[in-house]
Amino acid sequence: MSTIDARQYAALSEVARLVASGAAGTRSALATATGMSRATVSQRVDTLIGAGLLLDGEPASAARGRPPLTLRLNPLTGTVVAVDLGATHCRVLLTDLGGAPLAETAASIAIGEGPVPILTRVDTLLRALLEQCGRKTSDVRAISVGVPGPVDFATGTPVRPPIMPGWDGYPVPSFFAEVYDAPVLVDNDVNLMALGEYAHRDAVKHLLYVKVGTGIGCGIVSGGELHRGAAGAAGDIGHVRVPGHEDVPCHCGNTGCIEAVASGGALVAALREAGCEVHTTRDVVRLSSEGNALARRQVRLAGQRLGEVLATAVSFHNPDLIVIGGSLAELHEDLLAEIRGVVYRRALPLATRSLAIETSLLAGRAGVEGASRLALRHLLSPAGLARLLGTG
Question: 20 to 30 A Cα–Cα from 238, which one of 34, 38, 130, 362?
Answer without folding.
Answer: 362
